[in-house]
Structure formats: structure tokens, C-alpha cells
Write a structure and sequence with these properties.
The protein has a domain of about 30 residues. It is built from three helices and no strands.
Length: about 50
């Protein structure tokens, strides 16, 4: 039986790019959401926690 399929959504890619651009910094979910909302690219809180 094959394992769980993996895929990357646009939101996941953008989130990873953002986190990698701020090494050594810890973010809250609210900060991350605020960043993307301010950029007119909203990301669901559930995506941030995944």
C-alpha cells in the first residue's frame, strides 16, 4: 500500500518562502496571517498550523 500523497498548495509554498526569509525569528499564527492579509494574499489559519 502506498503512503499518503504529498502536495503543495500555493499558500503552503508562500508560507514556506516567508518563513525561510526570516531565519531565526519565531512568528505567531496571528503575525503570519497579518503579513499575508496585508499583502492581499490571505492564508487560512489552518494552513499556518499544518
Amino acid at each position: 500500500m502506498a503512503g499518503k500523497a504529498t502536495y503543495r498548495t500555493r499558500a503552503q509554498k508562500e508560507l514556506l518562502t516567508y518563513l525561510r526569509s526570516t531565519p531565526g525569528r519565531h512568528h505567531t499564527a496571528a503575525e503570519i496571517r497579518g503579513h499575508f492579509t496585508h499583502q492581499d494574499r490571505p492564508i487560512a489559519t489552518a494552513t499556518i498550523y499544518r
